[in-house]
Amino acid sequence: MRKMWKKVRKSRTFQIALGNILASYLKLVWRTSSLTIEPPDLYDRVDEAVPFILTFWHGQHFLMPFVAQPHHQAKVMISRHADADINAIAAEAFGIGTIRGSGTHGKDILRKGGISATQEAIQTLRDGINVAMTADVPKISRIAGFGVITIARYSGRPIYPVAISTKKRKIARSWDKASIHLPFGPAAMVVGEAILVAADASNEQQEAARQLLQQRLNEVTARAEELVGRLPQQKGEADAG
């Protein structure tokens, strides 16, 4: 059964179908949610900073395509594996481009496309297109890596930490505790203050920026949870609320 699933999940026809179903479902969730945006003048602020880097915790990615406005050009960084192909197809259904690759540890960085994805993200920003990406290193949830910091440093563009929370959801039993959002409930999108990284930032300054990013991501996540009436990352959460 496991071998059959591995074969099916790599089928392009299956991936396209599932990716489009996912996009349609997420549109239903978004359209039926009662949304609070903080700060209220969010788009006036970020429009002055285009192009920018939008970053969020892994597991909070499903509703991020809705952050972009119709006039925004954006690409999202998505890792290279069969399950991520489905996410890439869903992103493209929203009119969002993709950068394939992800951060990792040690020798896997070449296989997973970390270097090429970083270079493409920097060039994308230089071309005036926004970049969206997760902040944490895969398999290490809620610990910000240096990938976002490096891209900000070499592109000169600001980082905006963002979180989206919904009152009705389930939490997946995955390393990132992904939020499976459900329709017909309150939702909140919170964006924090921008973070800039100087081109000549020292190792110590880059580490300080990484820590600040981690802190602000935790703050916007907690605030989004509060706005929908939840405690941040409730232990053992499995029900729809």
CATH topology: Glycerol-3-phosphate (1)-acyltransferase
Proportion of strand residues: 15-25%
Q: Which regions contain 5 or more consecutive residues with pLDDT less than 50? A: 104-111, 234-240
CATH structural class: Alpha Beta
Largest sheet: 7 strands, mixed
- Return the average pLDDT rounded to an integer: 87
Which value, in Å, is the CA radius of gyration? 17 Å
Shape: globular
Number of strands: 9
Sheet with the most strands: spatial strand order: 1-9-6-2-5-3-4
The sequence of SSEs as H and E is HHEHEEHEHHEHEEEEH
The assigned structural class equals: alpha/beta
Fraction of residues in H or I helices: 40-55%
Under the CATH scheme, the architecture is 3-Layer(aba) Sandwich
The span between the termini is: 33 Å
Indicate how many domains the architecture comprises. Answer: 1
Count of helical segments?
8
Keywords:
241 residues; alpha/beta; Glycerol-3-phosphate (1)-acyltransferase; 7-stranded mixed sheet; two-stranded antiparallel ribbon; globular
Task: Annotate the secondary structure layout.
Blueprint (H helix, E strand, L loop, with lengths): L1 H8 L2 H20 L2 E5 L3 H6 L5 E4 L17 E5 L3 H12 L3 E4 L7 H4 L2 H13 L3 E5 L12 H9 L3 E8 L2 E3 L7 E3 L4 E6 L11 H25 L14
Structure overview:
This protein has helices at residues 2-9, 12-31, 42-47, 82-93, 108-111, 114-126, 147-155, 203-227; strands spanning 34-38, 53-56, 74-78, 97-100, 130-134, 159-166, 169-171, 179-181, 186-191. By secondary structure, the chain is α/β, with parallel strands linked by helices. It has a single domain (2-227), classed as Glycerol-3-phosphate (1)-acyltransferase. The protein has a 7-stranded mixed sheet, with helices on both faces. It has a two-stranded antiparallel ribbon with strand order 7-8. Helix 2 packs across helix 4 and helix 6 (114-126) runs parallel beside helix 7 (147-155). The protein is globular.
